[in-house]
Amino acid sequence: MTAVAKVIVDVPTMQTDKPFDYAIPAALAGQIQPGMRVWVQFGRGARQVAGMVVAVNAAADYDGDLKPILAVLDYTPVLNAEGLALSQWLAQTTFAFWITCIQTMLPTMLKIETIKTAVLGPKPTPAAQALLGDRAGLPLADLDEAATAQVLRLVQSGALTLHYARKDRATVKTQDYVVPDAEADYAALRVAVRPNATKQLQLLDLLAQWQAAHETPAVAAVTADTGLVRADLVAGAKRGWLTLEAREVYRAPYAQLDDQPHTAPLTLTSAQAAVTTAIQAAVTATRAETFLLEGVTGSGKTEVYLQVIAAALAQGRNAMMLVPEIALTPQMVHRVKGRFGATVAVMHSGLSDGEKFDEWRRIQRGEARVVVGARSAAFAPLTNIGVFIIDEEHESSYKQDDAPRYHARDVILHRAATHHAPVVLGSATPSLESRARAAKQVYTPLMLPQRINAHPMPTVHIVDMRDAYKRGGKDDFSKDLLDALALRLARGEQSVLLLNRRGYSSFVMCRECGFVVQCPNCDISLTLHMDTHTLRCHYCGHEEPIPTVCPSCGSKKIRYYGTGTQKVEQSLHTLLPEARVLRMDVDTTRRKGGHERILSAFGAGEADILLGTQMIAKGLDFPNVTLVGVINADTGLGMPDFRASERTFQLLTQVSGRAGRADKRGEVFIQSFNPEHYAIQFAQHHDYEGFFRHEMTIRHRGDYPPYYFTTKLTVSHPDEDEAAKAIFSLAAQLRKALSPTAIVLGPTPGAIARLKNRYFYQLVIKYKREPQLDQTLKAILDETQAASRNGFFVAIDREPQNFM
User: Fold this and answer.
1) At what angle do helices 720-737 and 773-785 cross, to 10 degrees?
2) 106: Cβ–Cβ under 8 A, 6 or more apart, which residues?
3) Residue 78 lies in a domain
4) Distance between CA atoms of 584 and 582, rounded to whole angstroms?
5) Rounded CA gap, 205 and 525, in Å?
6) Could you tell me the residue range of the domain that residue 209 belongs to?
7) How far apart are CA 225 and CA 217, in angstroms?
8) Rounded to an integer, what distance in angstroms lies between the CA atom of residue 599 and that of residue 619?
9) How far apart are CA 152 and CA 148, in angstroms?
10) Cα(449)–Cα(231) distance, rounded to whole angstroms?
C-alpha cells in the first residue's frame, strides 16, 4: 500500500487552508517525515508549488487518484513535532492561514520561490512566437500588467503554456581551505623544483609546516599572510601537492564576542537573591509557572536573568530570552554572550537573511543553548528549554501588526506549557494586563523595589511649556533644560534627549491659504526630512520634493510646523555649538548595524548628547549619563487609543531610568504643555503602583482591558462605499451571534481612513466570555475569502495593541 503525505500547500487562501493527500513515491518510502518541505503539483493544471508535510499516513482520506510528491527539499525536517503543533495552534488563535504561520516560523531563506515561465503551448500562434522572440521561455516576473494580460489570454487559448520551477534560497556559505597531502614528501618534492620558482618553493615549505602541525588553513588567511595568491594554490592543487576543500562556515553576526573571557556572576543584593531563588526553584521543579518581575530601572533585572539562565544550563536545559527592540539587542547580546560565549544565538530582523539562516541552523542542530532575540525569536527551534524570559514585557512591539497577528508573550506561554518551564516577564512598568494577573495570582509577583547599591532614582522636574518661552526658552528647549545640558557639557557628563517623532517638521503649510501638503495615497500630511530635502509619508513611503510655492494658491509663504528629531538636532548645533550630538531614529539606523554603531560611539564617549525616538528609552545603560530630557511629553497623549496614558507613563518612566545609573546622581526634565496630566505626575514620582490603581479605575469605568477582552475587525477596499457597506454588513452578522453583554464599538472609519489608496473601516468587540465569537469570526473569514478577489480585505486582530 502506498504511504500518503498530508501536505499544506503554499497557496494562502481559505479554500486551501487544509492538508492535501499526496502519494509518496516508492523510492522515498520511509524517508519523508512531517516537517519536511516538498514540491508538488497543485490544482488541475501543471501548476507546481512548495508545501510542508504535516503528517504521514498509511491510507488516504481522498478517494481519487493521488498525485505523487515531485521532490523533497530537505534531508531532515525543518520543523519538529513541537513546531508543527505550534504552527497549527497559531493559525487557530490568530485567524491566519496555516501556511502563513509556518512561513512566519521559518527563516526567509527556507521559503521557496516559484519561478513561472511562459513557453510555447500545444497551439502556437504568430502572436505567441512574436512575444517569445528568440527566447525559449518568458519569465512572468519581468512583465508589466499589459504584458501579463496578453500572456494570460495566450495561455487560455493554448498558444502558450506555463512552466513552473522552484528556487530554494537555502544556501550555505562556504570557505576554501588548504589541505596538505598527508602522504607527500615535501622535502623530496622541493629538490625537483627549479631554484628560481620562488613561489612554488615557498608553498612547499608552508605545506610541510602545515602537514607536520596537522593544520588546514583557510585560503583567505594564506593569501593575506604569506604573499601567495589563489592562483599559486590552484597550481599546487593541479600538481597534486594539496587539495582545496570547500567547508561550510557560519555567518555569525557577533563572532567577535565569542572568544572573549566570560564575565563572572555578580554578587546579588538580598532582593535579587530572593527573586533568583524563587525562579530557580521553578526551573529545578520543571514547573510552568509565570513570574512577573517588577523592578525599578537600574534594579539589576539583567543580572537576575543571567543567573537564572546559568541555573537552567547547569541542569542540562536551554534558555530563551526576548527583548522588544533591535536597538536593545546589541547591549543585551554583549551581556549574555559575555557570560555564556559562543553558546548564544541571536535572532532579530536587523540581521541579514544569511545570518538569520545560519543562527537558526545552529539552534536547530543543538550548537546553541541560549537564544536572544526580538519578537520572531519566540519561534526559534530550541529544544529542552528550561526557562523563558521576556524583558520589557509591556512593549507593544511584541505584537505583530500583520498576519499572523500574534503576541510573542502568548507564544512563549504556550511553549512554556509544552516544555514545563517557567516564564519570567520583566519590566519596571508592566502592562496593566500582566500586573492585574499578578494581583489575581495568575502570575507570581516578584519585586525589585530599589536600585542596586541603593542608588537613588533621578530627580524629575516637570517644565510647563505654556510659559517656558517667557522665561528664556528657545526653539524646542526650555531655559531649565538648556541650562542643565550646558552644565553637563561643562562637567564632561552625557545627556539623553527623547522626542518621539522623527523627521524635521510634522507638516508643511501655506500661511496664505492654509494648504497642507498631503500624501496622495494616504489621509495624512507628509513629514519634512531636511537630510534628503524631501517630504515623506511614514505609512506608504511616498516621497516628493519640498515645494517652494503653494500648489494651491501659488504663494511663496510655505512654512514648516511641528518638530522632529532632525529639527531638534539642528537646534542643538545652534544653541550648544560645542556639543557633540548623535541622533538615533529610524532614519539614522536603516543600514545594517546602525543601532550598534551609534550606541558604541556614545558608550565610548564620542558624543555628549544622544538624541532619539522611543528606541533610546529602554534598556540602555551608560554610567556617564546624568541627564535625561523629554522634549515633548504630550506626543502620545492625544492618540485615539485607550492605552495612550499607559504608554506615555511607561515611556517617561523608562527614559527617566537612563539617568544616574552609576555613582553620579541623575536628573530628568520633562517638558509638557499638559503638566497636570496624571500620567506625567505619576511618572515624576516613579510611582507605578499609584498609576496602576488610577488607570485601572478608568479602565473599569470604560469597560476596557484588563476587565474586558477585545477583538478588532477591519475591512478595507479601494472604494470607500464598498468598504463601508461591507463593515456594516459584518457588524449586523456579529451582533446576531454575540450575547447582550458584549459591546460593539463602531463601525467607524479608521483613525487614518485611507492608507496606500485603500479605505479602512473597523469595529471593536469588547467581551468577557463569548462562546460563539471564534466560530462566527472563522465563518466571516470563510465568507469574505471569495470577496477578496473583488478587492476586499478583512483582518481580525485578537487583543490589538493599536486602534489606529
Assistant:
1) 150
2) 78, 79, 360
3) yes
4) 7
5) 70
6) 174-248
7) 11
8) 12
9) 6
10) 65
Looking at residue 474, what DSSP letter applies?
B
Helix axes 230-238, 198-213, angle to 10 degrees: 80
pLDDT of residue 1 exceeding 70, the answer is no
Whether residue 390 sits in one domain with residue 410: yes
Alpha-carbon distance values, 459 to 189, 324, 493, 657, 686 (Å): 78, 27, 16, 10, 10
What phi and psi values does residue 24 have, to the nearest 5 degrees? -90, 120
* pLDDT, the chain, mean: 91
Which of 529, 547, 562 represents a domain boundary (last residue)? 562
C-alpha 32: how far from chain center: 32
Dump pLDDT digits (tens) for 386-396: 999 999 999 99
513 and 399 co-located in one domain: no
User: Which class for 59: exposed (0-12), middle (13-18), buried (19 or more C-beta within 10 A)?
Assistant: exposed
d(CA 183, CA 202): 19
The C-alpha cell that represents 303 in the structure block: 543580572
Residue 254 lies in a domain: no
Exposure string for 749-759, b = 16+ CB within 10 A, e = fewer = bbeebbbeebb
Query: How much is the pLDDT for 462?
Result: 96
Do 391 and 534 have their domain in common? no
Look at residues 125, 149, 168 and tell me which one is the last residue of a structural domain: 168
* CATH code assigned at 584: 3.40.50.300
H-run or E-run covering 781:
helix 773-785
Identify whether the C-beta of residue 166 lies closer than 8 Å to the C-beta of residue 48: yes
Helix (H) or strand (E) holding 115: strand 112-120
pLDDT digits (tens, 9 = 90+) for 124-172: 999 888 888 888 888 888 788 778 888 888 988 888 988 878 777 777 8
Same domain, 556 and 671: no
Q: Which residue has the cell 622541493?
A: 190
> What does the DSSP assignment read for 320-352?
EEE-S-TTTHHHHHHHHHHHHGGGEEEE-TTS-
Co-location of 236 and 184 in the same domain: yes
Its sign, for the CA torsion 603, 334, 297, 620, is positive
Q: Are residues 515 and 656 in the same domain?
A: no
Q: Amino acid identity of 481?
A: L
Q: At 99, give phi and psi (nearest 5°).
A: -65, -35
Residue 719 CA neighbour count, 13 Å, CB half: 7
Residues 333 and 318 in one domain: yes
Burial status of residue 69 (CB atoms within 10 A of its CB: 0-12, 13-18, 19 or more): buried
**Cα distance between residue 193 and residue 199, in whole Å:** 10
**Total number of domains in the chain:** 7
The pLDDT of residue 291 is 98
* 241 within domain boundaries: yes
Asked if 760 and 720 count as a contact pair (C-beta separation under 8 A), the reply is no
In this structure, what CATH number is given to the domain that contains residue 59? Answer: 3.40.1440.60
482 confidence band (pLDDT: 50, 70, 90)? very high
C-alpha cell, 289? 509557572
Q: How far apart, in whole angstroms, are the C-alpha atoms of residue 319 and residue 493?
A: 37
Place 780 in a pLDDT band, splitting at 50, 70 and 90: confident
Rounded CA-CA distance 480/483 in Å is 5
Q: How many CB atoms lie within 10 A of CB 153?
A: 13
pLDDT digits (tens, 9 = 90+) for 248-281: 888 888 877 777 889 999 999 999 999 999 999 9
| Residue 23 resides in a domain | yes
Cβ atoms of residues 246 and 174 within 8 Å: yes
**Burial class of residue 169 in the structure, from the number of CB atoms within 10 Å of its CB (0-12 exposed, 13-18 middle, 19+ buried):** middle
Quick one: which of 572, 613, 586 has its CA closest to 474?
572
Three-class secondary structure of residue 705 per DSSP: coil
Q: Residue 561 belongs to what H/E stretch?
A: strand 558-561
Per-residue pLDDT tens over the stretch 750-773: 988 999 999 999 999 999 999 999
> Are 56 and 91 within one domain?
yes
